[in-house]
Specification:
Layout lengths: L5 H9 L7 H4 L6 H6 L8 H37 L5 H29 L5 H11 L4
Helix pairs in contact: 1-4, 4-5
Length: 136
């Protein structure tokens, strides 16, 4: 797709974070994918792992849904340029729709970090930050 890199398309298709939740990460709100990757080092209980996995799956499903809408809208915008049908009015409408969708996608990822926070102990969050390189 013109206008998006192959990596951007892959991230949208697969519901990946792509830095959308970096603000949460850097402020001690662990992310579900990384918590699952570090489950042994964090000594997650079975209950914690199940809960984090469920949050991850919920986040990923919603991120894929929004990502698909973004791809469809990006394609429409691209076509409008290709076929020379773009006008200042529909450019504004289409870019505003895309801005809303990108905002929704970011919120999906940030909300997952909020939902993970109460599932972990303060000690696990400190350990997470160390393992992720956010603290010493």
């Amino acid at each position: 797709m013109r206008g998006l890199s192959p990596q951007e398309v892959e991230n949208l298709v697969h519901g990946r974070g792509a830095g959308y939740a970096r603000m949460a990460e850097l402020n001690s709100y662990p992310g579900p994918r990384h918590v699952l990757d570090l489950k042994q080092e964090l000594n997650l209980s079975v209950e914690q792992e199940v809960a984090v996995q469920a949050e991850f799956e919920r986040m990923q499903a919603e991120a894929k849904r929004v990502g698909q809408k973004i791809l469809e809208n990006e394609q429409q915008l691209s076509v409008a340029f290709v076929d020379r049908s773009i006008t200042p009015t529909n450019l504004q409408e289409q870019t505003q729709e895309l801005a809303d969708l990108y905002g929704q996608l970011r919120a999906v990822h940030l909300e997952a970090h909020l939902r993970i926070m109460p599932l972990l102990s303060p000690e696990q969050i400190v350990q997470y930050n160390k393992l992720r390189g956010y603290s010493e």
